[in-house]
Amino acid sequence: MFTAALVGNPNVGKTTLFNALTGSNQYVGNWAGVTVEKKEGFLNKDFKIVDLPGIYAMDTFSNEEKVSKEFLLKGNVDVIINIVDASNLSRNLYLTTQLKQFKIPIILVINMIDVAKARGLEIDFEKLSKELGLIILPISASKNDGLTELKNILFNKSYKTNTESRNSKGFQFESEKDAYSYIDDILNNCVKTKNSNNNNITEKIDKILLNRFLSYPIFLLIFFLIFKFTFSWVGQPLSDTLRSCLENTIIPNLDFLLGNSSLWFKSLLLSGIVKGVGSVVVFLPVILALFIGISFLEDSGYMARAAFIMDKLMRTMGLSGKAFIPLIVGFGCSVPGIMSARTLESEKDRKLTALLVPLMSCNARLPVYALIASIFFPGKESLVAFSLYGLGILIAFLIGLLFKNTLFKKDEEPFLIELPEYKMPDIKNLLLHTWDKGKGFLKKAGTIIFSVSVLIWFLSNFNLNGLTSMNESFLAGIGKLLAPVFKPLGFGNWQTSVSILSGLMAKEVIISSMGIIFGNNLNGILPTYFSSLSALSFLVFVLLYTPCISTVVVMRKEYGKKMAVFSVVYQVLLAWIVSFLVYNIGKLFL
């Protein structure tokens, strides 16, 4: 098995190249003992490509750098594919000089040559190859230009040609400044810049999107349009179609096919499994629609601008704009959001950000928003969801302000972030990335949600005397103990209390629990248990209370037991207080 290590800075097209080379033949996990994503893919059964984390250097400060260095030292790597940005060679080649020290054959892949040409850069690749002593291949990964040549080099192992003579130029520098001086001397001889009176497209766009007066309104508009796309135009309509198919076709036909089967078996299959899991799976289009929108912003280059825009606001709560990235990741899932907080420089920033990430509304809450909003706020689903996401951000800001002045009284860190070139995202890679998230959702539906649905069915149909009515079941007993806690919030019935409790496993389980407890027609039944105000209070509680058990486990692993317990307790109290205020202040006006 030949192994190639794919190495490069962030935002140089590394993921695009990896996906183009390996297609769907790839596996994602974590490096042993470290919560840093590990990607492996295959050109064929004999050639493996390992996509190392995006890094700027090999100075072993971050876990990403440690993982990369360890793998290059001990991973039996046959060749390094070092991908760099043609329009940013001066910065990118610093990592290249460090990779030379591993004495492994290197293919220097210069990506985004089309962008470099648009900026008036002319690169003499043959001369640069001689100066660096490396095989150089210019490509445009997003357009598949040059990929055939790269595959031929790998398959034919022509990267071994003259390896000793090419690698004979060692790089030994006493300081980072000497690295960069050497690189600049080479680039002065190999790269020419045409004089142009035209600003490049990125600068023109940034004059609008980063304008001091327009940046925030545009930021809000962009995210509002994503919610419209998710809840009004694509995601929710498709979800409604699937729900209708489930309730009006699949369940009735299954009921007919089961015929005279035993009542308990029919109840388990229909009420426990099909309704429980199905009531969550129908929201897959909503999840996919949101991730298409978020992935589009990431791949286009706007997400880095969002962090830049938010820097001033983040500073008021003791964080840099860089902390906005883990918070944005938290919109997808709190687990990687907390993990990505480790890329922040200071311990204060890491801990404070990790405590705020769960307040960002993760995609697991989307099915709850979609269901409740469609029943109680028809036609205003996108506005309700947008408001909940905005409320989560506002609460995070206020909590960050509080913690900054109490728990985390330390100096602020400087903010450094690269703003990549704008580009039109590659549709294939966009869909692949979105489907990866969708697979995670379906996997959860097939494991956690399935298991909890069966458990909820059992607890709702049995007590110590055996099979019984739901009102006399184990589940009703548990719910009736919890109900008084939620009564001041407007939803003090045992059914809702149990649904909230089950949501600690995964927020989607709230919907599957409701499907089992309340039965088929949630649109008709839920209005008898909720008013519009209590439904809103319920949504606020779901937004803010303790996230899933996986998030708590990761918090404990990353920051210790005390911080994990603290995060659980403070979020439950926070959710209760804010929901109480929403419901009771709302009653004064309604």
List the helices and strands and how they pair.
Elements: E1 2-8, H1 14-22, E2 26-30, E3 37-44, E4 47-51, H2 63-74, E5 79-85, H3 89-99, E6 106-111, H4 113-118, E7 121-123, H5 125-132, E8 135-138, H6 147-156, H7 163-166, H8 176-190, E9 191-193, H9 201-209, H10 215-233, H11 235-258, H12 263-281, H13 284-300, H14 302-315, H15 324-332, H16 334-340, H17 347-356, H18 366-376, H19 381-404, H20 427-461, E10 462-463, E11 466-467, H21 474-486, H22 494-502, H23 509-518, H24 522-525, H25 532-544, H26 549-559, H27 561-589
Parallel strand pairs: 1-4, 1-5, 5-6, 6-8
Antiparallel strand pairs: 2-3, 3-4, 7-9, 10-11
Helix pairs in contact: 3-8, 5-8, 10-13, 10-19, 11-12, 11-13, 12-20, 12-23, 13-20, 15-16, 16-26, 18-25, 19-25, 20-23, 21-22, 22-23, 25-27, 26-27
The geometry reads as globular
Instruction: Report the major sheet.
Output: 7 strands, mixed
The helix/strand class is alpha/beta
Order of strands side by side in the largest beta sheet? 2-3-4-1-5-6-8
Helicity, as a percent range: 55-70%
Number of helices: 27
Distance between the termini: 69 Å
Total number of β-strand segments? 11
Number of domains: 2
Mean pLDDT: 86
Summarize the structure in words:
It is a single chain. The chain has 590 residues and is α/β, with parallel strands linked by helices. It folds into 2 domains: 192 residues, Rossmann fold, CATH 3.40.50; 366 residues, no CATH class. 61% of the residues lie in helices and 9% in strands. The protein has a 7-stranded mixed β-sheet with strand order 2-3-4-1-5-6-8, with helices on both faces. Helix 22 runs antiparallel to helix 23.
